[in-house]
C-alpha cells in the first residue's frame, strides 16, 4: 500500500477532518455512512482515502480541527462548538459554521463540591483555583467576572483566579485538592453528581458542527465541498423529521392541516371516496407523539409515521 501520509497520495483530494476518537467519533461515522462516503480506515492510520469521491478523511483530535480548518490545511471538519470557541478568537474568525449536527450536545459549566460551605456562586470562586481543559475559555470567563466585580484594575493582566490546565479527568481535581472548582463539560450531569459536584455557572452550550474555512484555499474543490455539505444536511434533516400520513374527512381537513402544516405546505390528495382526503406532511420527530394525539382527537384516521432515510429540504431545519 502506498504511504497515505505522503502529500502526493492526497493530491487532488478534498480533505475532511473527523475527530479521531471520543464522544463525536461514532456519530461522525454514522453521518459519513448516511452521506454514502465510502472508505476503509487501516489499523492505526489517521488518513483514509474515500473510494467513491476524490476525498481523504483525516482523523484528528477534536481540539485541533478548528485550527486545521481555519488555516486551510483541511477543507471541511466536524468538531464541537466548544472546541471552536476554545481555539480562540483568531481561529474562530477563520472558521465558518456550515451546519449544526444535532449531536454532541453538552454545556461547559463551572462546578464546585456540593459540600463546600464557602463556595456557592461563581463570585465566590474569584481568587481561588479552577482546574479545566478549557483554559482559554475559563480564563476569559473569570477575567470578565473579575472586571465586572471591579477586582481587576485596567492594565492588570494577571488574573486573581488561578486557572490550572488539566488534560482529562477534570472532575477529580477538587477531591484531589488540586482546585476549589472546575470548568468542564456536562451532558446528563451523571459524572458531575457522581463526583459530588454541582454546577454554579454556564460558559456555553455546544453541539457538533460541520465547519469550513472562512477563506477557502486556492486548491479547494468548492463544488465537492458544497455537495458533501448538502448530503450531510440531508442526513441530519432526515434524522430530525418524520413523514406523517393520514386520512381525513372533508369537514375535518382544515383543522387537521393546522396541526400538520408541513414545511412548505402539506400534500392533500383526494381519495376515491369523495368524502375523504389523504394528507402527507413532514413533522419534527420530537413533536410527533403530540401531533398524532392531536390528529386523532381532530378526527384523522389511519395515521402512519414513516422514517426518512435521507432527504433534501430547503431553508433552516
Ligand atoms: N458528555 C458529553 N456529551 C456530549 N458531548 C460531549 C460530551 N463530552 C464531550 N462532548 C463533545 O465531544 C467533544 C469531544 O469530547 P471528548 O471528551 O470525546 O474529547 P476527546 O479529548 O477527543 O476524547 P477523550 O476524552 O476520550 O480524550 C467535546 O469537545 C464536546 O463537543
Ligand atoms: O454529564 P455527563 O453525561 O456525565 O458527561 C460529562 C462527561 O463527559 C465528558 O468526558 P468523557 O466521558 O468524554 O471523557 P473524558 O473525561 O476522558 O474527557 C466530560 O469531560 C465529562 O466528564
UniProtKB/TrEMBL annotation:
Keyword flag Ribonucleoprotein: no
GO annotation, biological process: L-histidine biosynthetic process
Gene3D superfamilies: 3.30.70.120, Periplasmic binding protein-like II
Top-level taxon of the source organism: Eukaryota
Listed GO CC annotations: cytoplasm
Pfam families: HisG, HisG_C
UniProt pathway annotation: Amino-acid biosynthesis; L-histidine biosynthesis; L-histidine from 5-phospho-alpha-D-ribose 1-diphosphate: step 1/9
Every Histidine biosynthesis HisG C-terminal domain range: 238-310
Catalytic activity field: 1-(5-phospho-beta-D-ribosyl)-ATP + diphosphate = 5-phospho-alpha-D-ribose 1-diphosphate + ATP
UniProt GO MF annotations: ATP phosphoribosyltransferase activity; magnesium ion binding
InterPro entries: ATP-PRT_HisG_long, ATP_PRibTrfase_cat, ATP_PRibTrfase_CS, ATP_PRibTrfase_HisG, HisG_C, N-reg_PII-like_a/b, N-reg_PII/ATP_PRibTrfase_C
Keywords for the protein's UniProt record, in alphabetical order: Amino-acid biosynthesis, Glycosyltransferase, Histidine biosynthesis, Transferase
Family: Belongs to the ATP phosphoribosyltransferase family.
PANTHER family named among the record's database cross-references: ATP PHOSPHORIBOSYLTRANSFERASE (PTHR21403:SF8), ATP PHOSPHORIBOSYLTRANSFERASE ATP-PRTASE (PTHR21403)
Protein's name in the database: ATP phosphoribosyltransferase
